[in-house]
Known about the structure:
Layout: E1 2-10, H1 27-39, E2 46-47, E3 56-66, H2 72-82, E4 87-95, E5 107-116, E6 129-131, H3 137-145, E7 149-152, E8 167-178, E9 181-188, H4 195-207, H5 215-222, E10 237-243
Parallel strand pairs: 3-10, 5-6
Antiparallel strand pairs: 1-3, 1-4, 2-3, 5-9, 5-10, 7-8, 8-9
Helix pairs in contact: 3-4
Amino acid sequence: MRRLKLVLEYDGTAYHGWQLQPGLDTIQGALEGALSRLAGVPVQVRGAGRTDAGVHALGQVASCTAALRLDDIALRRALNALLPRDIVVRAVETVPPDFDARRSARSKMYRYTLLVRECRSALQARTSLHVPYALDLEAMTRGAAVLVGTHDFSAFRAGSCAARTPVRTITQAAWRAAGEFWCFEIVGNAFLQHMVRIIVGTLLEVGGGKRAAADVSAILASRDRRRAGKTAAPHGLCLVAVEY
């Protein structure tokens, strides 16, 4: 038996999120199925983050314990041969027994991508949110800056969120634009359910002139979900990396 760390990339379009759900296609279910097939016995995995339905990943991390004779490189190849094409194991590493993909994580980075132009995209439609109207990047940047620090993020938390505390520490929250593609990148020690998507939805209202940048501070202080904007669509969100 050995402890394994797996780094995954996936297109979440066809899946009902990361977490295992009976009768539904999930990333965790697909990965556990491939590992169990190789091990000959059921293998359970734990993910660094429970990405929602439709959310993507470049650097999701999972951990598990399994009795597998394949070395790390051979195991990666074997898993990728069994997994569907929209899920890829980028790396496999044998780690100490106490490693836990979720509990051992120090920070996570998410990226939300917008396509800001009049017409939609045929190639990027699955991974970016199409915004057909002008946005004020400077105002959105000012609004995002308010989020950096340790705060109670109740105003940016889904009603179904089961986290024990709404307090989170954000070390980076910034927009960057490269032509028609605008990306919001946020790094924190942990995130509440739908937190990034609600933040993006709120900042889109700032960028569209429906709110002032200064309103973000008041929304954060209110701790009231009703004060924040709509939850942005899942397909623009990607879990980029997890740091340990």
